[in-house]
Amino acid sequence: RTTQKRSLYVRALFDYDPLKDTGLPNRGVAFQQGDILHVTNASDDEWWQARLVACAASGGDPPTAAEQAAAFGIIPSKRRVERRERAKLRKDGTAGSLDSCESVHTQQSQQQPAAPSEDTASAGNLSDSHVAIPTYEAVQQLDIRLARPVIILGPLKDQLNDALIGQFPDRFGSCVPHTTRPQREGEQDGRDYHFVDSREQMERDIAEHLFIEAGQYNGNLYGTSVSSVRRVAQSGRHCILDVSGNAIRRLEAAGLPPIAIFVRAASMENLCQLRRGLTEEQARKLLDRSARMEAEFSAYFTATVSGQSFDEIFSQVKRVISAQSDRPVWVTCRDED
Ligand code: 5GP
């Protein structure tokens, strides 16, 4: 009872419905993956006392008045969640329903320790105790004064990116990538690309996490450096990035937490309405890819939007970005202090 941490804030990495939980000693708090909770008492092994402070589904909004009343109560401790999920795994025989969550955690466990440090020895045999269970991760509030980068994921991202930069060139910009390919006639160093002389140097810089993403094309390296993104942010514009979900955490780690907006197509019909001209196979592939992306990264999305038309979705994207400018930013703690 003496190990309780002060001001422990966590991001939930799973959905929790207290109505479906048995044995709750007190009123439970419902939350969803990505929500931020203030854990006010973590001294009990099974149950923590917590308050919901930001809801992921509404782009980080604080709970509404109605939600406020239900926002304080009991949540299962990290240890309890792990023990119950492991029991479920053993019963099912396979990873089954945890597939999607595991990938989130695998990636995260390599980079960051999980939230409150509790032992997991109660988990049972070795064959399943090594499986990482997504529970909570410690987060902290960041006071950021730069224009945050924007990452749009899912269908329509190219059209939305173009519309933001095209309609609001003073508020949104793009950054100049690096490449090892030779400069072409008419290209300008620092405008079209940062042309890099030494491939070895760029490889070293990628290994040292100076790039948020990098790839190879026709034998040449290409990548987006943290400093190029920071330069756009310092100019007061949101840097629009066309990158994978992995970049969200890399940017967070670099002190540039992005506004990550996932566009969800509700159905095949909805997708074909939004992206006319897609073949059925293309649409199916796009939906599959989106579903995988959502399963892997949704805890890190600032908001998820959907709608019947481009205009409807574009309005929501603009609203989320505007609303974020006066919202606190929650980022994963990188050490356990
Ligand atoms: P080009 O050499 O013709 O300018 O670009 C060729 C290709 O390089 C692009 O179509 C794109 O696939 C890739 N590329 C350009 N910039 C970047 C970047 O910043 N990151 C990555 N991963 N690839 C890029």
UniProtKB/TrEMBL annotation:
GO term, biological process aspect, one: chemical synaptic transmission
Molecular function GO labels: protein kinase binding
Domain Guanylate kinase-like positions: 147-322
Compositionally biased spans, kind Low complexity: 107-117
Residues of the full protein shown: 203 to 539 of 540
Repeat recorded as keyword: yes
Protein name as annotated: Calcium/calmodulin-dependent serine protein kinase/membrane-associated guanylate kinase
Keywords: Membrane, Repeat, SH3 domain
Biased composition (Basic and acidic residues): 83-93
Annotated segments matching region Disordered: 83-126
Location(s) in or outside the cell: Membrane
Start and end residues of each SH3 domain: 5-85
GO CC terms in record: basolateral plasma membrane; neuromuscular junction; neuron projection; postsynaptic density membrane
